[in-house]
Design brief:
- This protein has 399 residues and is of the alpha+beta class.
- The protein has helices at 11-24, 29-35, 40-48, 55-64, 70-73, 82-89, 94-121, 140-154, 165-173, 208-224, 242-255, 258-269, 277-287, 291-300, 308-314, 319-325, 340-351, 357-364, 368-398; strands at 176-180, 186-193, 197-203, 230-233.
- The chain is built from 19 helices and 4 strands.
- The protein has a 4-stranded mixed beta sheet, with helices on both faces.
- A hairpin with a 3-residue loop joins strand 2 and strand 3.
- The model has no long low-confidence stretch (mean pLDDT 86).
Length: 399
């Protein structure tokens, strides 16, 4: 007697996957119901897991959603839907919900895929998490700087600029960080799941200086408000809560530590104690922050007169043009949508025959042609790293 594979699948889990796939392709429940010749109420029941799906219905829905049936029936990690957490955290208008929901769903899908790859490869993501910080009744700036100093020491960063911020938070801390396209006013998403740990999405459409600032901002939420989901967008508060003020204060101390910044300011000012706009631009580039952020930081340290940034701005200063005139190249950046560890797990799984090329392209969220190009790049990168390691070992043996 043949067994129906759908009998062994939790209908609620299947319903959630179907709902996510439907939303991603922009189809409403009424349209989906027409695909299987059913009423909208039937589709609602299917997505809630209250009505089991027939095999023929699953085939039709998968085709309509542009998915393979295997995506819905294979064993996958179950995680709490992110969108429900965000709805609990924020009261947004319907328009805002429509704007950001695709990014939330994409982050959820990518994080679930990440966990699935770890299970396939038996290689869980190492987590070097510090204990969650307890914020006392100290002044906000003092708390932010204290946390920044402690975390820099923990990660061995000293007081130098953090040139590889994303890599450090992904590889040395163990956060899941994705760069996703979002509407301009959104800067980042942070959430925490007991199985996934800390998950962050940063707006890939923003300039690198702002992405770095947003990433530090979300990192504070991980350090202090670990289990509170946060969605950052302009104009969301009438009165900014203390948790957000702390998160927005933290980046200036984490990215521009007082001791290092003071030393470099003195070195630039020289014996004549003169700090020029050229110095300002050069130092901002050195720390990987915006000129505005650096100017305000130096004003706060009383190293520049109050209002310096406003005066430069009111003179019609074109930041990008000045940077180009000074020969300051773009800040080094890694804008991959997906973390490097995730990519390497995917190529290892493909090369070991644990996943198909089709599944590999799904994991990377690209078509087959692009997936093959990425696969070759990853293989070349892995090969180069192995050659360097062998060369290093040979030198050590000779010594």
């Amino acid at each position: 007697m043949s067994t129906n594979i759908l009998d062994n699948i939790d209908p609620q889990t299947l319903g959630e996957l179907l709902q996510q796939a439907r939303k991603k392709c922009g189809m409403n429940q009424s349209d989906a119901a027409k695909v299987i010749d059913a009423a909208r109420t039937t589709m609602v029941a299917i997505e809630k897991g209250e009505r089991r799906l027939k095999a023929t219905e699953l085939i039709k829905l998968a085709r309509a959603y542009g998915r393979s049936v295997s995506e819905f029936v294979r064993a996958r990690p179950v995680v709490q839907p992110f969108e429900m957490q965000f709805r609990a955290a924020y009261q947004r208008s319907e328009g805002e919900e429509v704007q950001i929901e695709p990014a939330i769903l994409q982050l959820e899908e990518l994080c679930r895929n990440y966990l699935e790859l770890e299970e396939i490869m038996s290689a869980p993501l190492p987590q070097n998490y510090p204990p969650e910080e307890e914020v006392t009744n100290m002044p906000l700036k003092a708390v932010a700087e204290s946390i920044a100093i402690a975390e820099r020491q923990r990660l061995g960063l000293g007081d130098s600029p953090i040139s590889r911020l994303r890599d450090i938070l992904e590889q040395d801390v163990g956060l899941r960080i994705f760069y996703l396209k979002m509407p301009p006013k959104y800067s980042g998403i942070y959430t925490y799941d007991e199985r996934l740990g800390g998950c962050i999405a940063i707006n890939a459409n923003h300039p690198e200086e702002r992405r770095r600032w947003s990433l530090a901002h979300e990192y504070l939420h991980f350090l202090v408000h670990r289990r509170k989901a946060v969605l950052e967008f302009e104009g969301q508060y009438q009165r900014v809560p203390e948790s957000e003020r702390l998160a927005e204060t933290f980046p200036k101390y984490f990215l521009m530590p007082t001791s290092g910044l003071l030393k470099r300011f003195k070195d630039m000012s020289g014996i004549h104690n003169k700090f020029t706009p050229t110095h300002l631009f050069t130092l901002a580039h050195y720390y990987g922050v915006s000129v505005e952020a650096l100017a305000y930081r130096l004003e706060e340290m009383e190293l520049l007169p109050a209002g310096t940034w406003e005066r430069l701005r009111d003179r019609g200063l074109k930041v990008r043009k000045v940077q180009q005139d000074l020969g300051l190249e773009d800040i080094p950046q890694r804008t991959d949508t997906i973390p490097l560890h995730y990519q390497h797990l995917a190529i290892e799984a493909l090369d070991q025959g644990l996943i198909t090329e089709s599944r590999f392209s799904d994991f990377l969220n690209v078509d087959r042609l692009e997936a093959r190009r990425i696969a070759e790049t990853l293989r070349e990168h892995s090969s180069g790293m192995m050659e360097e390691a062998s060369h290093f070992d040979l030198i050590n043996m000779q010594e």
